[in-house]
Amino acid sequence: MRSYRLVGTCPDKVGIVARIAGFIAEQGGSIIGANQYEDTETRMFYMRYEVDAGSLDMDAEDFRAAFAPVARDLDMDWRLTESRRPQRVVLMVSKLDHCLADLLHLWRSGDIDFDPVCVISNHEDLRPLVEWHGVPYHCVQVPPDGEGKQAAFEETSRLIREAAPDTIVLARYMQILPPWLCAEYPNRIINIHHSFLPSFVGARPYHQAFQRGVKLTGATCHYVTEELDAGPIIEQDVIRIRHHDTVEDLVRLGKEVEKTVLARGLRYHLEDRVLVQGNKTVVFS
Amino acid sequence: MRSYRLVGTCPDKVGIVARIAGFIAEQGGSIIGANQYEDTETRMFYMRYEVDAGSLDMDAEDFRAAFAPVARDLDMDWRLTESRRPQRVVLMVSKLDHCLADLLHLWRSGDIDFDPVCVISNHEDLRPLVEWHGVPYHCVQVPPDGEGKQAAFEETSRLIREAAPDTIVLARYMQILPPWLCAEYPNRIINIHHSFLPSFVGARPYHQAFQRGVKLTGATCHYVTEELDAGPIIEQDVIRIRHHDTVEDLVRLGKEVEKTVLARGLRYHLEDRVLVQGNKTVVFS
Amino acid sequence: MRSYRLVGTCPDKVGIVARIAGFIAEQGGSIIGANQYEDTETRMFYMRYEVDAGSLDMDAEDFRAAFAPVARDLDMDWRLTESRRPQRVVLMVSKLDHCLADLLHLWRSGDIDFDPVCVISNHEDLRPLVEWHGVPYHCVQVPPDGEGKQAAFEETSRLIREAAPDTIVLARYMQILPPWLCAEYPNRIINIHHSFLPSFVGARPYHQAFQRGVKLTGATCHYVTEELDAGPIIEQDVIRIRHHDTVEDLVRLGKEVEKTVLARGLRYHLEDRVLVQGNKTVVFS
Amino acid sequence: MRSYRLVGTCPDKVGIVARIAGFIAEQGGSIIGANQYEDTETRMFYMRYEVDAGSLDMDAEDFRAAFAPVARDLDMDWRLTESRRPQRVVLMVSKLDHCLADLLHLWRSGDIDFDPVCVISNHEDLRPLVEWHGVPYHCVQVPPDGEGKQAAFEETSRLIREAAPDTIVLARYMQILPPWLCAEYPNRIINIHHSFLPSFVGARPYHQAFQRGVKLTGATCHYVTEELDAGPIIEQDVIRIRHHDTVEDLVRLGKEVEKTVLARGLRYHLEDRVLVQGNKTVVFS
């Protein structure tokens, strides 16, 4: 079913749902999914309405034009997206391909809906896999430091700009993006971190987890902000580990969680189910 | 926060949410929680609205009177409940007290809100525990069969009627209620079954699970209907078991899941989050 | 680390562990993993010893010859395998490729160790994927019934025999193998069933689960026996579903569990961690 | 079944299992459970053998005397305990009783085996509950600071000493024990911390979790050391939370995990399944 998704945030007050639902009903719109959340602490209102596109006499542009005055009245930060226009996604990866391979498989089998514009990597290793899927592959090697590194990220940035993505996914891209690059795509860069944040921020989280002797290891899907591993969390999960598990076992077990958590978080994001609320997220799952 | 919960089901059509939310807004009602579900297969609409009672000028009776014409228009099956009027609950139990003790503890600590009118058991064993909590205890022994059994259930039925419960909880009451008694309280009797239904219906499910060699054992909280262990499922969960676990271990591990699942399912029910849909449930958790 | 795995079952009695461990110590063997299980009900003993191959002066053949008299004394059913000789595995599949793609990816990335001799399918669909991985692909179409069907399974059987597999994996092969074919590979054919057995045996388990309104859906990895979906269970897991999930959602969510459960179960099997005990399994995980 | 548990750690070398199992066999001992773990990194060996006491001609004292020379040879740190001599346990608690009530219930119903010598609290609140269970209750109020605080902990220490416990359980005892008191009972004080450590160390972990916007909240059962919330972890688990959950919801959901994790961790400890390995634990579950 083709649908429109009306997603927005505004200060809470009496009558918002009536106003929104009233507007949709006036257009003859059939609601096929509705979520609201009233944050009683911040007095903010979050919503996601999914409307059967076939029940409306207008296209998305007209819908937007008609809704704009309502949104203005409500002081609402909003967007309207179309389910049939899959998001353009740039995937970034280093050498470990478990997340990338899983996303490409889910995409190809139709289990997750997006348009993989290209893959950018700092290594050549995964070119055959990606090109077999018919997806363009760009390799930009990132030198350890200095001018070369700056140049590499400028080239990366240029490639991203050309791809004009809605969303960028760091599917185990083992480089830290420079702040200026993060700042260009706020709440549009999604990272998978291989620990249960805020535990084990930074490098080698499985080694950290092994050292601490935790009994579960996890993964965290979050939006990238300028502060490392500190952005709004979209999704997390864990898996049980045992005393006889080595760091290598943790890595292996963790991969299972990483790919699941990233796929789940990305799906929420692509279906416009995630609204950022300060450094947290509202997820209408 | 004192609230009203408006819960209902009606045939789906354009404009229902607008109508409901519009009505609430007209009364000045501040919505603090809203859930809808549109079943595209059966074309039915399910909803739960929670409204800040302090934002309304009317009491529950007036609210009901005002809403009745709206509901009539929508052909809606509905109810309005008050968060501050906890449901009257009759708890039934045999000898195993893990579920009962957990519910009484949750009630006493304020973690789950209901009014435990009385406990009815077919044994005397749990009287001290129940009476320590200040809850009346009735023992009605149920003979294995025949007239005595019928009489016992009539006495049980009389005690229940006197207690005038909103909800009856079978917290490991090891007797099968007669159909006529089930029929008196449709969707108001909640049972905890000690397996992951529909696996292992009937007697001794842990023995059945042990024989089959499953790797997880579970528990199911469901509404009681005339057909044994076949009513609408409210909540389920499982716990991992290992080859070295004996039937006794399964019983012990299962208790942990049973009490959790029953408490969770009962909470959903008491907070009016469960709507029955044929032999299934909509749970606005 | 190269290792030998000594796996066996015998009637329980005093001194077995001493005998086994004594034998290993006499050869200078360094134990790197040891599991035992004494079933107090059947009075049977199950064991798995993993020995550092580098610590022994003998090769596997000599080890077997030396151990044979000990095993005879203990009336033990046993085998010795070498970690560095990965099992030969035939993968069978129909059209749904989530399990197959996951296994091939895990194999290629070294996360699970086996030798994928070939893939046999009753459709051509997955040939490109499989051949990209460099694995031979055989397509044997299976007519609905009658002589053609018999002939197809004879051809399938011939292909399997030629492949000389240690293990056959039905990675969503949507045909029921004939009993005579099952009987040729006892405890060596592994199936993934897309429900939490014994719930929803047979066809279309996700539809059955949807109809029953369960709150979790699952997957079961088990050895194939002549009775459909009734063989010894190796591994199971579940995932939570919600009232708004359609059958299609169940299928999608279920795929995530299916591939995880099959990969986990297959790993246990390939690492000689699974011992069949009647219609159950001992899993030294 | 009455059993002895032989638990120990020593440097790894060839022949340890043969030596231990050989010793047990010489006494005619029937092994009903055996776990070993060889840490390849530290080259240490950990073991737990459970022997049917009825199969031996000797009592525990004789067993210990006979085993001592073997242990000396192996340079083993060991102990032998008797399943029929439940550990003496002192329970400490403040006002929140969910963990305490659960443990007392499990104890009374025979689901966990220990001898609750007494409860020590810094408040009077839980006296009725504890005394109803027939367990002595001591209240030692702990002033915020200074000499009074020191005196309170000396009195607490005196009460503990009198109780002569094997194990002390901090079942939500909201005071930090002074280092000198921790040092008296190494690896014998068990705490339940209401977060998934190492996330949210210290005070008000649920508030910290709420602020960070995590999607799972957890609990950690660990041995108390002089460094706050940094001791060896015995057991952990998590529960899913949603954006609409308030801090109060987190507290409520967390209680469910806390009591489960503490009961599970304590059971492992009481059954001598936990061996401390530096700042980590080996858990033979």
Automatic annotation (TrEMBL), chains A, B, C, D:
Fetch the CDD domains from UniProt: ACT_F4HF-DF, FMT_core_Formyl-FH4-Hydrolase_C
Which residues does the Swiss-Prot or TrEMBL record annotate as the active site? D229
UniProt enzyme class: hydrolase
Domain ACT, chain residue ranges per copy: 5-85
Q: Tell me the pathway.
A: Purine metabolism; IMP biosynthesis via de novo pathway; formate from 10-formyl-5,6,7,8-tetrahydrofolate: step 1/1
Spell out the family assignment given in the record's similarity comment. Answer: Belongs to the PurU family.
Q: Per its database record, what is this protein's job?
A: Catalyzes the hydrolysis of 10-formyltetrahydrofolate (formyl-FH4) to formate and tetrahydrofolate (FH4).
Q: What is this protein called?
A: Formyltetrahydrofolate deformylase
Q: Which organism does this record belong to? A: Parahaliea mediterranea
